[in-house]
Amino acid sequence: MQPDWITSDAPVPYPEALAQMEARVKAMQAGTANEAIWLLEHPPLYTAGTSARVEDLTDPDRFPVYEARRGGQYTYHGPGQRVAYCMLDVAARGRDVRAFVAALEAWVIDALAEFGLTGHIREGRVGVWIERPGKPPLPDGSMREDKIAAIGIRLSRWISFHGLSINVEPDLGHFEGIVPCGIRGHGVTSLVDLGLPVTMGDLDAALKRTFARHFPD
After folding, report:
1. Residues linked to residue 163 through DSSP beta bridges, in sequence order
2. Residue 67 pLDDT exceeds 60
3. What is the pTM of this model?
């Protein structure tokens, strides 16, 4: 059975989203709810994952900061960014957390490919990256790459929650209050920043079309 797809049109406050995710996970554990993918946006905020370092929060008074208790470091969420919270049964999908995260990454890359973009996974850099050959290289001569999607999950008795975020048209300046995911040198981009007139609805449709390729029944 494919998951329930839930879309929120108005930005959802982070504490409300967290409470709803936790309630859904408990219902799934009790056998009274299906898997779910919740598509939403948040008001501007920063979340701190379990590996977040204080020094990576460079402007702590800019937006509210929430402890997310998911994997990863600091992440920005805000309008123009599609957040996909993934409440899925990892036990039924092989009890392999690494494979599950790899499937999330491949799903994002597949969805981006629908718009002609080539996303990349880099060792030591969580998330999905876009090569930027038109930008000046890094000091070591390597190609500049910008992050377009972040991934961070948490498990509760083998049910996942939290998930991923993809930049459609957020204010990229809002990322300047943190070191995104603790990675310095590279930047952040979005579909619109890359010259693609993609709407939130376009991305949602691509995510729905490509999901089953990576998370079959």
Report:
1. 85, 152
2. yes
3. 0.94
